[in-house]
Amino acid sequence: MNEYTTSSGERIVVGQVYRDARDVHVRTLRVDEITTDRYDHIRVTCTVIRQEVGSEVKEPMRPTTMAPSRLVSRAFQLLEDIK
Q1: Region of residue 49 (left: phi > 0; alpha: psi -120 to 50; beta: else)
Q2: What is the 3-state secondary structure (H, E, C) of the chain?
Q3: Are 46 and 28 in contact (CB under 8 A)?
Q4: pLDDT for the residue numbered 35
Q5: If pLDDT is split at 50, 70 and 90, which confidence band does 82 have?
Q6: Residues 29-58: pLDDT tens digits?
Q7: What values do phi and psi take at 55, rounded to 5?
Q8: Of 47, 18, 20, 19, whose CA–CA distance to 32 is shortest?
Q9: Angle formed at CA 59 by CA 77 and CA 21, multiple of 5 degrees
Q10: Predicted local confidence at residue 21, as pLDDT
């Protein structure tokens, strides 16, 4: 699946880029996949393309998976949208 709309009407699309909405240990995430798990729950898989820990910046390129509601919550900010 390339796109998902949450119950609150917010759209998540493969290719979007999000950022942690906090001041420390900030990650930048790229949406790579939207799937349904074995319990029929929607899961969003992102790649951590950048991580800032203090003055150190890394590009770990590691996966992380979460519920769509978490990604569109106040915990993250949308940086790049896909039209």
Answers
A1: alpha
A2: CCEEECCCCCEEECCCEEEECCCCCEEEEEEEEEEECCCCCEEEEEEEEEEEECCEEECCCEEEEECHHHHCCCCEEEEECCC
A3: no
A4: 98
A5: confident
A6: 999 999 999 999 999 999 999 999 988 999
A7: -95, 0
A8: 47
A9: 20
A10: 96
Q: Could you tell me the two tokens for 20?
A: 């942690």
Say which amino acid occupies 55: S
Distance CA 83, CA 57 (A): 29
Contact 77, 23 (CB under 8 A): no
> Quick one: 25 exposed, middle or buried, by C-beta within 10 A (0-12, 13-18, 19+)?
exposed
Predicted TM-score of the model (pTM): 0.92
**Pairwise CA distance, residues 73 & 76, whole Å:** 6
β partners of residue 63: 47
Q: Which two tokens stand for residue 40?
A: 């029929």
